[in-house]
């Protein structure tokens, strides 16, 4: 894993087995390629979030971190989001699907009486997004998934209706 900034065309050619011409036939530049991968990832995460919630997305990360080799890249993304307005706009468009799925899931869970009603849904969503970002950072730095699972239990309990 080289991360976003070190993902040269040569490395992309070697990793995905396509020539430079084939890569740029489908993707006009590295950002476009990256955004397509991010879109696919966000779609998978949104599907899980819609059915089972954002905490389940995080549990899936813990259960099979080797399937999420983009974890370190997410840290680079956070830095790039702060420093590159065009990249930030593109990322926001691709992240909207996961946010919408999470918003809808929280709405349904709140209506069913399963979530705290003393905290606004947008605050709960921000809280869960912060936990996801922290989880990604910890996994990318080599934290043991078993320990983080207990933290997710605590997070899940903290958003449940009391």
From TrEMBL:
One of the record's GO molecular function terms: transcription cis-regulatory region binding
Keywords (A to Z) from UniProt: DNA-binding, Repressor, Transcription, Transcription regulation
Domain named HTH tetR-type: residues: 1-45
Keyword Calcium: no
DNA-binding region residue numbers: 8-27
Family annotation (SUPFAM superfamilies): Homeodomain-like (SSF46689), Tetracyclin repressor-like, C-terminal domain (SSF48498)
Subunit structure: Homodimer.
The protein's name in its UniProt record: HTH-type transcriptional repressor AcnR
Lineage of origin: Bacteria, Bacillati, Actinomycetota, Actinomycetes, Mycobacteriales
Gene: acnR_1
